[in-house]
Design brief:
The structure is a single chain. This protein has about 325 residues and is mainly α. It has two domains: about 5-75; about 95-315, no CATH class. Helices cover about 80% and strands about 0% of the residues. It contains twelve helices and no strands.
């Protein structure tokens, strides 16, 4: 984009931000925070494409002023963390919302393929899950405890091991995005097929509802954040494939910054999912109401943090 076009496109916004900074006491703090984020994005663009221009100097000065206005009374790490959690992460989520949709579609397609493949091929479940796992589960289904696999091991040890493994899967889905999104697609697809085959096994033996009440106690969060981590990986890969007006390196840097923020946000959810799997899932037969409540609350938490909250802020601040 030519510098003149860049200025023409953004000058009204910059003037509005200057006015907001001049009337700080009369402007919503959330709007000031959004202004600062937009300024830093514009400054990064100007530094890349117009490094010696007065436009870059102007945006740099305005960004410094915005920073001083917003943060001069927010010197504690708690306030910085609050801003990161409430603005930086939702903005990053909003910026990769298309990749989140693509990741969800890939995963759902893989689940459907896994389920149908298991239906039409009796050996498919064993191929995907292994003979010992399938034999053990079938035996427990006959004993009336289809999700007995979650009783294995100590609660604390299981929770820690599961959490570490889930985080590893998520980070692999993210990092493998550098292979032009193919690596991320493979991880999403393989995990989706496994989940589809896994569910078909319970469907085949008529214990689908009971098994799902156990699996989705922890699986609601676990699967959701794997899909979100996949979106982070797709963001990396797409930044290389489709850099738009940026150089591939600059496009990759910006995408990595956004995706990393979103990926970091998944870690607490993985810890919660691991804790539920280690300590709660094994008691799934104690109360159906408990299972349903945990599943619904988990789903609402994911939808609020990764869908509703970013959407609300986007409408308030005019994020594109």
């Amino acid at each position: 984009m030519r510098e003149a076009s860049f200025i023409e496109r953004n000058k009204e916004k910059w003037v509005s931000i200057e006015q907001n900074l001049a009337n700080k006491s009369q402007v919503d703090p959330d709007e000031l925070a959004s202004n600062y984020i937009e300024l830093t994005n514009d400054l990064a663009y100007a530094q890349t494409f117009y490094p010696q221009s007065k436009t870059k100097e102007y945006l740099n000065g305005l960004s410094l002023l915005a920073h001083q206005k917003i943060y001069k009374d927010q010197k504690s790490s708690n306030n910085q963390f609050f801003h990161f959690l409430n603005y930086d992460i939702p903005l990053a989520i909003w910026q990769i919302r298309k990749q989140m949709l693509y990741s969800l579609l890939i995963f759902c397609l893989a689940v459907a393929i896994g389920f149908l493949s298991a239906h039409y091929d009796d050996q498919f479940v064993r191929l995907i899950l292994g003979h010992s796992y399938v034999d053990f589960t079938i035996e427990k289904i006959k004993q009336g405890d289809p999700a007995a696999i979650y009783d294995e091991g100590g609660m604390m040890g299981s929770a820690i091991a599961i959490t570490i493994n889930n985080i590893k899967v998520a980070f692999n889905a993210f990092i493998f995005g550098i292979f032009y999104s193919i690596g991320t697609g493979y991880i999403l697809f393989s995990n989706g097929i496994m989940l589809g085959a896994f569910h078909y096994m319970f469907f085949k033996y008529g214990v689908m509802t009971e098994a799902m009440s156990a699996i989705w106690i922890h699986g609601t969060i676990e699967i959701a954040v794997i899909i979100i981590a996949g979106a982070c990986g797709l963001t990396l890969g797409n930044s290389i494939l489709f850099p738009k007006s940026y150089t591939r390196l600059e496009s990759f840097k910006q995408a990595a910054k956004r995706a990393s923020k979103v990926l970091i946000s998944t870690v607490p959810f993985f810890i919660v999912a691991g804790t539920l799997e280690g300590f709660v899932t094994r008691y799934y037969q104690s109360s159906v109401a408990m299972c349903v409540m945990i599943i619904v609350l988990s789903l609402l938490a994911i939808l609020y943090f990764y869908v509703l909250r970013p959407y609300q802020l986007a409408r308030r601040f005019g994020w594109s």
